[in-house]
Amino acid sequence: MAANLIDGRAIAEEIHRETAARVAALAARGATPGLAFVRVGDDPASKVYVGMKERACQRLGIRSTTLILAESTSEAEVLALIGRLNADPAVHGILVQAPLPRAICSARVFASVAPGKDVDGFHPVNVGKLMLGDPGGFVPCTPAGIHQLLIRAGVPLAGAEVVILGRGNIVGKPMAAILIQKAPDADATVTVCHSRTRDLAAHCRRADILIAAMGVREFVRADMVKPGAAVIDVGVNRVPDPAAKGGSRLVGDVDFEGVRAVAGHLTPNPGGVGPMTIAMLMRNTVQAAEMQS
Ligand code: GUN
User: Which of 60, 63, 264, 271 is the most buried (most CB within 10 A)?
Assistant: First the structure.
C-alpha cells in the first residue's frame, strides 16, 4: 500500500492561520512584529530562502527588513550590525542566513544575537533551554516544523523508535532534543546516526520514524525502511539535469518513489518540510514580539 503523504503545505497554512490570529491580537494592542534578515555574500540558495521568508512576512503582516552585506564583509562589521539590531525596539526577531562566508565564524555570529530575538534558536541560551525542556526559549525552525508535521499527521511519538540521519546543529541535534523530552508529544527513543555510524541501514530498519537530514541525494532506499514507518525527508540537494529549467533540479535525501511503496507516512519534497520551516519562523517571530511587547 502506498504511504500517506504528509502535506507540509496544508499544515504550514494551518499554522499561518494561527500565527495571523496572534498578529491581529498584537495589532489590537498597537504592536507590529518586526523581523530583520541578515544575508552576507551571494549564496544563490540563501537569496531564494530569504526571499521566501520575506514574502511570508508580508502575507502575515510582519514587518521585515533585509540587510545585505558583501561577501568581503568582516566578522566585526556583521557583529556591529547585529548589535544595532539587538538595540532596535522595532526589531523583535533577527535571522542571520546560513551559510556565512568562510572568513566569518558562524558560532560567534549566532551567539551575538540577543537570545530574546533569536528566532532561529541557534544562540547557546536557546540551545540550552531546548535541552532543559524550558518552553521559554526559541526552538530551531526546521526541527520544530518536523515535530508539528508528525503531531498533526497523527504519528504516535511516545515510545516510538526514532532514527535521525545527520547530527548538524540546525536539524539533527535539535530534532533529537525535541523528541527525547519527557513531555506530551515527545517521549520518543532517539538514535542519531552520522557518517561514522556502523551499519546505518540496520538502524534505519528499526525506525518507526526515520528523519533523513544528512544531505545525500536519495540515500534512503525502500530496503532501509520498516514497512509502515513514517519517513521525513529534510534533504535539499541540487543535481544537474539538462532537461530541467536552469539545468538542475532539487532532490531529497529519500528515494521518494521506492520508499513510498513501503512507508506508512512520507513527506513529499518539495511540499513537506520546507514550508514548515517558514511557518515556524513566522511563529517564533510572533512569539518574540509577544515577549517584547
Ligand atoms: N540555512 C539553512 N537553514 C537555515 C535556518 O534554519 N536558519 C538560518 N538562519 N539559516 C539556514
Answer: 60
Cβ–ligand 1 distance for 144 under 6 Å, the answer: no
For 137-165, the pLDDT digits (tens) are 999 999 999 999 999 999 999 999 999 99
How are the residues of the chain apportioned to helix, strand and coil, as percentages rounded to the nearest 5? Answer: 45, 15, 40
* Nearest C-alpha neighbor of 144 from the set 270, 39, 15: 15
Read off the C-alpha cell for 176.
533529537
What proportion of the chain, given as a percentage, has pLDDT over 70? 100
- Kindly give, in sequence order, each residue whose CB lies less than 8 Å from that of residue 258, ignoring residues fewer than 6 positions away: 221, 222
> What's the whole-model pTM score?
0.97
Q: How far, in Å, from the CA of 223 to the mean position of ligand 1?
A: 31
Q: Is the CB of 97 under 6 A from ligand 1?
A: yes
- The answer to whether 273 and 145 are in contact (CB under 8 A) is yes
Distance CA 44, CA 65 (A): 19
CB 289 near ligand 1, within 6 Å: no
Of 268, 240, 265, 244, nearest in space to 254 by CA = 268
Q: What atom of ligand 1 comes closest to residue 277's alpha carbon?
A: 6
Distance CA 262, CA 73 (A): 49
User: Cell numbers 551499519 label which residue?
Assistant: 199
**Domains of the chain in sequence order:** 30-115 (3.40.50.10860), 140-274 (3.40.50.720)
Ligand 1 atom nearest the C-alpha of 99 is 1
Cell numbers placing 224: 532501509
CA gyration radius, the chain: 19
How far, in Å, CA of 191 to CA of 99, rounded? 26
